[in-house]
Amino acid sequence: MRDELRDRIGCLTPDAPDLETWRAWLLLGHLSASADGRRPETWQEEVLAAREFRNRLRGSSDRVWQGPEACGEEDLAAGAEVTERARKAAAALHDMGLDARASHPAASTLDLTKVVLALALIPFVSVAAPFALLGNGFQALVGAAMAKFNGESIDKRTTFHMMPTVLGTVFIRPLVHAGTIAALLWFGVISSPLLAILVFPVLWLVTDACIIFCRNFYLNLICDLRRNLRTMRASRSTAWKPLQTELDDLTSTLDALK
């Protein structure tokens, strides 16, 4: 049962010998999807596209190929010529501060819709940001700093990011809301203790909504715009032309592999 479970869930992991190879498969997944008229928009779609291409090279998705639980057979996906070429192209993108998403033709064109949306939402962000920061923002910033400035691998850094946020929600955020309500009582904004009790869940829900808006939506929008601008700058550099040629050659190779 253990071996069966290992083989069944092995394909759900990167199952790559190193991070550079996984980046190569992500790039090949993007190029393959673009050739089919698709563009992975989310992390999930990106990962699924990479898995699909990796499993196609292996001709199998029912065993583990890397690590201590490897099946012992040669990994055709990791050793393929197209993977080696993609590894170099992905490394070049990484050196530019980009990833496989920059391989899409539209990635180097300024997304005016997102620019207008980001500017239009600034007044709403100005109102929501104080609530988001009071709720969990400062704890999240501490977690982000802990995750960034340490020598752990990327998957372990998320733990450092998560701990202050989770612990802050349990131990710090109730105190912040209680202090806010106490201040409202002190300054006479709220006159009834019963009303103060009712304000607590309302304040919690409003803070949640502001956090979701600022972090899950607006921050993602800003990150997309920053990546868009980096891709635009990179596409105008001298190093981009040979990289674009290699990406085009990889796309042609993928068409031949179908």
Count of domain modules:
2
Order of helices and strands: HHHHHHHHHH
**Alpha-beta classification:** mainly alpha
Fraction of residues in helix: over 70%
Assembly type of the shown chains?
Answer: single chain
Shape: elongated
Provide the residue-averaged pLDDT.
83
Cα distance spanning the termini: 35 Å
Radius of gyration: 24 Å
Largest sheet: none
Annotation field: number of helices: 10
Tell me the strand percentage band: under 5%
Give the low-pLDDT segments: none
Number of strands: 0
Report on the architecture of this protein.
It is a single chain. The chain is mainly α and 258 residues long. 74% of the residues lie in helices and 0% in strands. The protein is built from 10 helices and no strands.
What attributes characterize this protein structure?
258 residues; mainly alpha; 10 helices
Write a concise synopsis of the structure shown.
This protein has 258 residues and is an all-alpha fold. The chain is built from 10 helices and no strands.
Layout of SSEs?
Layout: H1 2-10, H2 19-35, H3 43-58, H4 76-79, H5 81-95, H6 112-120, H7 122-148, H8 154-186, H9 193-235, H10 240-257
Helix pairs in contact: 2-3, 2-5, 2-10, 5-10, 7-8, 7-9, 8-9
